[in-house]
Amino acid sequence: MYKAPVEDIAFTLNHVAGLKGAIAEGRLGDLSDDLVDAILLEAGRFASDEMAPLGPVGDKEGARLVDGKVIVPTGWDKLYQDWAAGGWNSLTSDPDFGGQGLPHMLNVAALEMWNGGSMGFTLGPTLTMGAVDALVAHGSDALKAQYLPKMVSGEWMATMNLTEPHAGSDLGVMKSRAERRDDGTYRIFGQKIYITWGEHDVTENIIHLVLARLPDAPAGTRGISLFLVPKFLLNADGSLGARNDLHCHSLEHKLGIHGSPTCTMIYGDGKFGDEPGAIGYLIGEENKGLACMFTMMNNARLAVGMQGVAICEAATQKAVQYAKDRTQGKAPGWSGSGMSPIIEHPDVARMLVTMKALTQGSRAICYSCAHATDLSHHGDADEARHWAERAALLTPIAKSFATDAGVDVASLGIQVHGGMGFIEETGAARLWRDSRIAPIYEGTNGIQAADLVTRKLPLSNGDHVRGFIGELKEIAEQVRASNLEAFGETAARLSSSLADLEETTEWLLARLAAGDSASALAGATPYQRLFGLALTGVYLAKGALAEEDHGRDQRLSLCRFTAENLIAETAALKDRVINGAASLQAARAVLA
Amino acid sequence: MYKAPVEDIAFTLNHVAGLKGAIAEGRLGDLSDDLVDAILLEAGRFASDEMAPLGPVGDKEGARLVDGKVIVPTGWDKLYQDWAAGGWNSLTSDPDFGGQGLPHMLNVAALEMWNGGSMGFTLGPTLTMGAVDALVAHGSDALKAQYLPKMVSGEWMATMNLTEPHAGSDLGVMKSRAERRDDGTYRIFGQKIYITWGEHDVTENIIHLVLARLPDAPAGTRGISLFLVPKFLLNADGSLGARNDLHCHSLEHKLGIHGSPTCTMIYGDGKFGDEPGAIGYLIGEENKGLACMFTMMNNARLAVGMQGVAICEAATQKAVQYAKDRTQGKAPGWSGSGMSPIIEHPDVARMLVTMKALTQGSRAICYSCAHATDLSHHGDADEARHWAERAALLTPIAKSFATDAGVDVASLGIQVHGGMGFIEETGAARLWRDSRIAPIYEGTNGIQAADLVTRKLPLSNGDHVRGFIGELKEIAEQVRASNLEAFGETAARLSSSLADLEETTEWLLARLAAGDSASALAGATPYQRLFGLALTGVYLAKGALAEEDHGRDQRLSLCRFTAENLIAETAALKDRVINGAASLQAARAVLA
């Protein structure tokens, strides 16, 4: 059973991602180390004791649609109420609306643990948090006053309605439409798919944020508006009124996260109300809906990254436990009686240590991204911009590296289990199935890579990423200067990977400057992976450099393993970026 | 829907794996090119038209255990009868027992196509073929006469009973026991798990091959005997007699291949018959059961490799089709109206071409392995030994590389589908789920790697693998000498990867010679991958060198893509083998 890794999380937050330093420098208000510890401990307890037992229930039962009502898995309704009552929905929200105003880093850490307990469950609250962010940033005061307090407390959950059957990654071709009404409201019509937690009775109202197009809107992405469309309309006193004209038409039959209801939602077909059309309220300005979405997109992408980290951790825990318990054969050097625990076999140990390394690397990248987001809200304008650029740069890497790692680590977890891994009761297969959506949603990892290369590298004319690589090189230098034997060849390996990163980055910037986006895009995915691997090596080294006695030997040896076994791949990735585009272009013929 | 790639298969068999040359040299009896073509065409038709439509049915319905009877998915019973009536069960079997005595290569090609149609279905016949091989090699004349004709024709299916809950990879600790009876028969007692197609009514009898231990047997793997244990005993005239004392206790709830019944079998608990004990007949000698198993293990492992190739092909076909149909966004350089087909996006094209390359590479390795097996049955003793060693060397690489590729390619297939890939109705997810068992059964890929390094590299004191690498280098030289511009940097890339392979091979042989198997085993999996990647590059080049007009441009460009994008990873893998062991040893502490 998953046990939230509170110590590893606290260490990474404090000593790799920079939380401890930020607190000491007073950049995070009156947040104290003690409060951080208390929050992590309690979030971990809830994830381990309350959520983890209900994860497999969700997978087995799934969400069901019965007579138009969505039934969530047994125990999930109470779990949600307990979770919301614990104040977990509002860690980072604006105190003006009942939130706790805590740093994003803490929420991200808690998200990791909850996703470790149950990814399908946690997806619901994750969507609510995104909707809160969008409403805080762009809603009118009246809308905020009416809706935010209950969304912040978790009394109402919320959804994001973007995708349509023909409009997934490309929202510009969306067909859902909105009509203006004389009273300033809108009527919404259309079909939305893949709506996470789109319908249920866990909360008495559900607040849908829906993208739609006005009749006179410009074509493409500049003609999309964002609307708040509640399941139940509110009376003047804020109490629940009439049912709005929207409903869940069907649930998807998915590979994983079975407990999370993935709904096809129909707006405005006349099923409810006097006349067809779901009543909606504009958020932000007309035709600026996509900009409102972008506000929350970085946070949402990082939240998906946390699903990857969580799957890594859960799969690793399960595999390590199994490998200690299961005996089979005799490993080289095994002197015990009978068969060895399989953890003694070098190949099994290689798998498990690789899983550990990818877990820690993903965690460090994601937390560093959250740290940048937090600091982007503090300091002077230059400082805020610096950290906003850092968060922007790290977000696609965090999302993609952690979610790819989730799939890879869960697959290794199955392999460690042997035949048992293929049997559903073991639970290793469930983690793998669940993991597979994370590289897809909130922008596929290929779209993250395109974003990284075409939008993030050019920030500050390329000087932001250059500065960042410079910081990473300093850490490699600190490893060299430490003269710690336990680092092995780490310093040289880091330097080599960072040189690969630097050369590839400059090559991409030059291609972009030359207007050759096709070549840059052809190498975007290998570049994104290169960046993630180099960061993994450097961040593990940063942790190992921290002079914290507890666990330092392990951090050093995991760092060395990572440097000497995993990150040499950057050379091949560099080659793929720089030399691969021409052969890819030539090979397109094989797809004819 | 899957369409058997008959042309690609024929090309690879003939021009990469060497079938055409072997026929021309008269090494394969009176087999003709026309007969090969006719067999491939008809096997392909059956796979595409008859099997492929029933694959998804098997996944959805699964096999079910109802009142002790196993119900197979709708249509599978008739599918089996039609398949067996087509003579497909007996392609390679001994003509003395009704077989067609055709080369193994043809059976392997057909297996690819049937697995492409439905892996869960094809698994049943695959086990029958293995049992036929074991019985032909080791059974008494009386047993052969009684059982082989109907097993060869497919009138009866057969199973292999090896695994027990505590005895998976390590069969030495098996507990199932056999007692001698005065009439020369044995009584079998015990529980076996993961028995593929262990019970059903598709054929009127099922022939179980069961490993068990005699009371006075030596401990470990030298004390295991193999028995033939029929579901129904035979009367003197060969007609079906009494029900034997064995039954299916339960079916596993698996991640994939749902249509294939995976049974827990109970032998000898007294459910059937006068006294407890399933009646069994010894195959081969007492305590030599594992040797009998090894006879068929190479073929069985290659058959699993074919599952990997089949999944690669099916996933690639599905993804290419989707990427042509689905439109989204505008790719760089897209001049059409509206959105581009997603196949135009460089990142999607990269995924699809990578899928093609891994499919062709896996296919070429597997067919080359089958070719070696075929030639090991011809020529003089030295020649036969040479090819037997080649088959032995290639088997672990074929099994592991193709099955890992199956998982990776199926995962890329999901990614190409975006959100649709996570919806089960699309079918991409099913292929991924099915694929995941292949790296596990018939010896996990980690065990294949250990076999490759510790048993196969030392063949002929290392001279066999050295000679093989020499042959591969000659192909790289031919690429260089061809001066074909379309090869791009292929020659240099092949040389570089082959140098990595050579250096790593010598390092491993030296470690083994020094008695340091722990270090050799620590690098076994990366070495196995290195070997597979280098072979992929070389075999694609070999195909591209063949002066067949049809499709040569495509073969050249796919080869170049593979050489310039995929095989540079060998450098990192070499590093992991040679330099990774020490850091792995140090990092074991993190698993404490």
Briefly characterize the structure:
Two copies of one chain form a homodimer. Chain A is built from 19 helices and twelve strands. Chain A has 592 residues and is of the alpha+beta class.
What this model shows, in words?
The structure is a homodimer of 592-residue chains. With 592 residues, chain A is an alpha+beta fold. The model of chain A has no long low-confidence stretch (mean pLDDT 96). The first copy, chain A, starts with 5 loop residues before the first helix and ends in a 5-residue tail after the last helix. Chain A is built from 19 helices and twelve strands. The longest helix of chain A has 37 residues, at 289-325. Chain A has helices at residues 6-16, 19-24, 33-51, 55-61, 76-85, 104-117, 119-138, 141-153, 289-325, 346-375, 381-417, 428-435, 445-456, 463-482, 490-513, 517-522, 524-545, 552-566, 569-587, and strands at residues 64-66, 69-71, 157-161, 177-180, 186-196, 206-212, 225-230, 232-234, 240-243, 246-251, 262-267, 278-283. In chain A, strands 3, 4, 5, 6, 7, 10, 11 and 12 form an eight-stranded mixed beta sheet that branches. A two-stranded antiparallel ribbon of chain A has the order 1-2. Chain A has a two-stranded antiparallel sheet with strand order 8-9. In chain A, helix 1 packs antiparallel against helix 6 (104-117), helix 6 packs across helix 9 (289-325) and helix 7 runs antiparallel to helix 9 (289-325). In chain A, a hairpin with a 2-residue loop joins strand 1 and strand 2 (69-71). Among the domains of chain A are: 6-63 and 73-139 and 148-153, Orthogonal Bundle (Butyryl-Coa Dehydrogenase, subunit A, domain 1); 157-288, Butyryl-CoA Dehydrogenase, subunit A, domain 2 (Beta Barrel), CATH 2.40.110; 444-580. Chains A, B: Residues 287-453 form the Acyl-CoA dehydrogenase/oxidase C-terminal domain. Chains A, B: Its EC number is 1.3.99.41. Chains A, B: GO terms for molecular function: acyl-CoA dehydrogenase activity; flavin adenine dinucleotide binding. Chains A, B: It comes from Rhizobium rhizoryzae. Chains A, B: Residues 160-266 form the Acyl-CoA oxidase/dehydrogenase middle domain.
